[in-house]
Description:
- The N and C termini lie far apart (59 Å).
- This protein has one domain (7-125): Response regulator (Rossmann fold).
- By secondary structure, it is of the alpha/beta class.
- Helix 1 (15-27) links the parallel strand 1 and strand 2.
- Helix 2 (38-47) packs parallel to helix 3 (64-74).
- The strands form two sheets. Strands 2-1-3-6-7 form a five-stranded parallel beta sheet, sandwiched between helices. Strands 4-5 form a two-stranded antiparallel sheet.
- The protein has five helices and seven strands, in the order E-H-E-H-E-E-E-H-E-H-E-H.
Amino acid sequence: MAQEKLRILIVDDDKGITGSLSAVLESEGYRTEVAHSVKEAIEKSYENDYNLAILDIKLPDGEGTNLLKALRETSPKMMKIMLTGYPMLENAVNSLNDGAVAYLIKPVDVEKLLETIKSKIEEQKTVEMATEESIAVFLQTRTKKLLTEKYAARKALN
């Protein structure tokens, strides 16, 4: 229930990994979709809204770090977690600088992944709530100001 059928896009060229991750995440109540290339992931990001994406660093048609940048354009609110079997400090730094919220190493510790997803989804909800509250306060303040100006204008005419 806590996941409220949140949508996760899993991007990896290894069908065994996407299948395993998808099964684990769906057993936790998430809705998952998979993509096996940069192109397919970008297409899916235009067609659907995802709360989170899990991206492999090495894909057959490009680097996951480039996909990270592309997804920032198509889905700016989507949280992105990088997964790699090729841990390199440069990839980690670039991934985090380009908007990844986490960088995990394969073989992935499922508990760590689930913990990271839950934590990042909670952060996303907190940001959305703060944004909604800010908009509500702005609208209330603006409405009050307009009503006050309208009242003052009427009073000046009388």
